[in-house]
Design goal:
This protein is an all-alpha fold. The chain folds into 2 domains: 1-30, no CATH class; 31-176, Serine Threonine Protein Phosphatase 5, Tetratricopeptide repeat (Alpha Horseshoe). The chain is built from 10 helices and no strands. It has helices at 5-16, 34-45, 49-56, 62-74, 78-91, 96-108, 112-125, 130-142, 146-159, 166-176. Helix 3 runs antiparallel to helix 4, helix 4 runs antiparallel to helix 5 (78-91) and helix 6 (96-108) runs antiparallel to helix 7. The termini are far apart. Mean pLDDT is 84; it is low at 1-31.
């Protein structure tokens, strides 16, 4: 019978956690493998946000942190999402998933000034990130800066005219004019 690396790791950790007469070896969680990150991304894309979150906890790398943050914001856990989103965007400012998660987390926490600053920095690095404009517009709206929100919403629509949020953005723009 052939065992995959994850099963072997779990078995090894089980053996290590057993008590012996002379000592107890502390149990450590198994590292998240690259295949697990890909599986977690698939879970996220299927709308299984809690499962993706559980798989990505403790994972390293910008992509893993970005999807962890995205999974958390989909569950409205903005405070928990802020840290991994910042880690993802600090490591990779053009990571679209991380930028969108950071924008949503900061707007959800009503940290509008920080959202505007961080999203503006990401836009400088990658000016075609539609959701950076979308969330920056939301932050501007939270600060009652309507002209800036309108400008960012229009840029969002130019970059992503068929995005799921596009119809709502068009309605918002009509109401703001």
């Amino acid at each position: 019978m052939k065992l995959d690396a994850r099963v072997v790791g779990i078995l090894a950790l089980s053996v290590l956690s057993c008590r012996t007469a002379s000592a107890q070896v502390p149990l450590r969680s198994a590292p998240v493998m690259a295949g697990d990150v890909k599986a977690a991304i698939a879970m996220y894309e299927q709308g299984k946000y809690a499962e993706a979150q559980a798989t990505l906890q403790g994972a390293e790398g910008a992509e893993a942190k970005a999807y962890l943050a995205a999974s958390l914001v989909k569950q409205k856990k903005y405070g928990e999402a802020e840290g991994p989103a910042k880690e993802a965007t600090d490591a990779e400012p053009s990571n679209e998933i991380g930028v969108a998660a950071l924008g949503e987390a900061l707007v959800g926490l009503r940290k509008y000034d920080e959202a505007i600053d961080r999203l503006s920095n990401s836009i400088k690095v990658e000016p075609d990130m539609a959701y950076a404009y979308f969330w920056r517009a939301q932050a501007h709206q939270g600060k009652k800066k309507v002209d800036m929100a309108v400008e960012d919403f229009n840029t969002f629509l130019k970059l992503a005219p068929r995005a799921p949020e596009a119809a709502a953005v068009r309605q918002t723009l009509s109401a703001l004019k």
